Amino acid sequence: MDSQVTRFPVISQCPFCSSEDIHDTKLRALEDANGRLYLVYECGSCTGRFVADRPMRIEKVEEEAVEIFASPERVAQQRAHFAWKRIFDENDYPYSLIPLIERWAPGRRVLDLGCGASQLLPMLMKRGFDVVGFEGDPARAEVARENGVTIVSGDWRKIGDVLGGKRFDCIVSDQVFEHMLDPVGTLRSLKSLLAEDGVLIFRFPNEGSWRRKTELAWARLRGNNRPLSYFVDHWNYFNERAARTCFSSADYEVLRIKKDLSLHGFLVRKVFPNLAAVPGLPQLIARTIASIDSNALSNGLTVVSRPLQRAA
User: What is the pTM for the complete model shown?
Assistant: First the structure.
């Protein structure tokens, strides 16, 4: 085994379906900070992939680490990051996640799980939703509050206690589920936060897209076992089958899966500002991109689900 590979304990079961039919893909996920490599395994049952030697906890989202991760330097970094990201949000959310929330949420109470300091909550507020954001990273939570929205911060493991028994008609989460060390356990813990008929709307990368398969095939041809898409702290790599299995394992009914083409940095930063001179053109392009639902073009999956209704 490569001496750079981490020595965290290797899990013995698939984190999506608990199958023990798992194997090493020989691909590795890189941790940029220290150059360490992590093992990428695949499940023979649900076909999902995941980092197999994952840590037991994520330090920055735990209560005892708040002071370390809320330093002025980190706050400034996060403020700059989300200022740069704003153009993505403004040309994405109104055509992607917001229509799904308006379609599927049975009421107006929305929780954005792992909200960062994105523009989703301010946009929902303007549309009359009663919104709360939950953000474990204390620096991101501080920047998010500058947007004028209610942000609750605390330990992910105690999210129900942190939110004080509140219930929501929709829990939305964008590009967060792939970071969860215990995806099934997280889904189960969120049931207590959902109102009757409440839904989850989660968006995350699509491991089953043609784009990802082409990238992996090219990496193998070049003898590269560290594809760009595999990096820490992405612990989970879902295709549609693995996503359905994971939500089913947590006793959720999948209502819809959309295969998205999320807007890319180059397109938004370089192309959209030039299009702004033509009224309505950026919005038309963004709406067209958001309408895509195809593995051939997608790089993301959006899952709409709700807890299974148990017979009395």
Answer: 0.91
